Amino acid sequence: MARAAESWVKDAVLEVQEYVRLLAKVCRAVVTPPFYYRDAIQQFDQVGIGSLTVVLLAGLFTGMVLALNSGITLDQFGARSMVGRLISASMVKELGPVLSGLMVSGRVGSGIAAELGSMLVTDQIAALRALGTDPVRKLVVPRVLAGVLMMPLLSILATGIGMVGGWIVSLLQFHVASSIYWSSVVQGLYIQDIWMGIIKPIFIGFTIVTIGCHVGLRTTGGTQGVGNATKLSVVASSVAVIAVDFMVTKVLIVTMY
Question: Which of 28, 98, 109, 157 could form a disulfide with 105 if both were Cys (CB 3.0 to 4.6 A apart)?
Answer without folding.
Answer: 109
